[in-house]
Amino acid sequence: MRGLTDMTPKQFAEVSAIFGDVEPELDVNKRKYKVDEVSSVMRIGNTKDCNGNLNAMLALTPPLPASGSPQYQYAERLPVWHTDSTYRKHPPIGSTLFCRQAPPEGGATCFADMREAYDSLDAAMQERLLGLECVCSQAHHDAKVNRYSPEYPVLSPEQRAANPPNRVPMVLQHPQTGRLALYGMNSSTCAVLPKGTHLSAKQLDQYEVDVLEDASVEEWRKLLPSVTADRFTVTWQWEVGDFVVWDNRCTMHCATGYDTEQHTREMWRTTLAADKV
User: Fold this and answer.
1) DSSP state at residue 229
2) Which residues form the TauD/TfdA-like domain (predicted)?
3) Which residues contact 37 (CB under 8 A, 6 or more apart)?
């Protein structure tokens, strides 16, 4: 939807709630980015407070290539295509974004249909992927993003202990439609293994403390160029007042960069924790 230029944070949360149950609180290490004391709304971008301190979550990503295509480039590992928060015990069903300030160029968000992408694979590949699961860790995710975006918060040892790794299927059946979709790719994905494979405490420490990624994740990465081909994707160039909602269970997305030194971008975001009952 476009043209919602006068929406307040409270109204944004209320509109978001049309599409699902809005998560009432941000992750503990992101609560400093809440908007105007509305605990469910997070600010993303490069805005600063009156003291000149960053008050938005900022992840530095490259802009789209000259071609304008968001297709994953295996050698560069870009763009960072992902499904939100697969590291949670109960991953969110969706997300919403609202544009408050947009740069004159760059800063687009791209979306990919993982249902059609899965359907495009041959039967043997589909069958293989059905037997795999992704090991997703928030500690791994936050430390990995922090390496290229130093302002990004990381978990303390206590927070890490309270947020153990989660396992999700690489192919997810949508609970409402029954359709199968590729799932589980996130910066938190530190291993892709046959379902039920045991991991030792030492292996988990390597993933979370040493921020190592298991070679098995290449199973997913090698698929990304084909499943983010232009026929599966759409690029949304933001205008002030835009509102976008998507279903995390069958859609991947990626952010694209802009000139953060010359331009300001401010987005508001809510997380949809569950379907409306």
Assistant:
1) S
2) 2-271
3) none
